[in-house]
Amino acid sequence: MRKPILAGNWKMNLTYHQAEAMVEELLSLGKAPESVESILLPNFLCIPLLADKLKGTGYQVGAQNMSSEDQGAFTGEISWDMLKDLGVSYCIIGHSERRTLYLENNSQIEKKLRKAVKTGIKPILCVGESLEKRQAGEAKKRIEGQVHRALVGLDREDLQDLVIAYEPLWAIGSGQAASPEDAEDMCLTIRQWIEKGYGSDLAEKIRILYGGSVKPDNIASFMEKENIDGALVGGASLKAKDFYALIEGVQNA
Ligand SMILES: O=C(CO)COP(=O)(O)O
């Protein structure tokens, strides 16, 4: 049995004080249920705040990005040990906004993923196709390339904590989620590639999430699919009530 994940990617939203108010409200709604890994991924400045407030509550704190380097002259970057020092457990690697807006390429993503797995940060590798690729019937080819390029040179032992998030670009922030059937088809395909490359033990173990316009009222339709192990949520993770409702949606699936 794979433990489901509900991860809230706040992106560049919520100031320190807004984050504080959100987390206080979230905690007033209840603790994180044990049956769901509930992770909040705030901006870097809010990580210490969340790490402190969420200690002992069952919620985990993640980061949205990390450097592939250890330390040194890399202005504006954040390293794995800075994150670990604050208790960060998960880090998003290769989000489509980093790929498209900041031109992160497969080779940089591969280096970041390698750094994460070698240093004990659990990676949430994001993959997803554009609308053009989907309409051209090339969605699976696109995703396969992204998964394979990110995992180059890593073996089964390195990938025990890998999480993959399938986030089609056209579904992100658009209010137009993928159909649960299409999302399941893509998640199953990813699992089959992992099985082919690394064996069925790993394929059965890794969590594959869907992301893109997930809301409290559609989470159940994704969670009922066999190969969808949770969701990576943007907009709906910013409000405490919605985030808690999403967790309940995963818990009740
Ligand atoms: O990009 C996403 C999460 O990483 C999805 O964002 P939305 O839930 O706002 O569509």
TrEMBL record:
It holds the Pfam family TIM. InterPro entries: Aldolase_TIM (IPR013785), TIM_sf (IPR035990), TrioseP_Isoase_bac/euk (IPR022896), Triosephosphate_isomerase (IPR000652), Triosephosphate_isomerase_AS (IPR020861). The keyword Cytoplasm applies. Transmembrane segments: none annotated. Its EC number is 5.3.1.1. Pathway: Carbohydrate degradation; glycolysis; D-glyceraldehyde 3-phosphate from glycerone phosphate: step 1/1; Carbohydrate biosynthesis; gluconeogenesis. It catalyses: D-glyceraldehyde 3-phosphate = dihydroxyacetone phosphate. One of its GO terms (molecular function) is triose-phosphate isomerase activity. It is found in: Cytoplasm. The active site is at residues 95, 167. Keywords: Cytoplasm, Gluconeogenesis, Glycolysis, Isomerase. GO terms for biological process: gluconeogenesis; glyceraldehyde-3-phosphate biosynthetic process; glycerol catabolic process; glycolytic process. Substrate binds at residues 9-11, 173, 213, 234-235. SUPFAM superfamilies: Triosephosphate isomerase (TIM). The keyword tRNA-binding does not apply. GO terms for cellular component: cytosol. It is an enzyme of class 5 (isomerase). It comes from the Bacteria. Belongs to the triosephosphate isomerase family. HAMAP family: TIM_B. Homodimer. Involved in the gluconeogenesis. Catalyzes stereospecifically the conversion of dihydroxyacetone phosphate (DHAP) to D-glyceraldehyde-3-phosphate (G3P). This is Triosephosphate isomerase. The lineage of its organism: Bacteria, Bacillati, Bacillota, Tissierellia, Tissierellales.
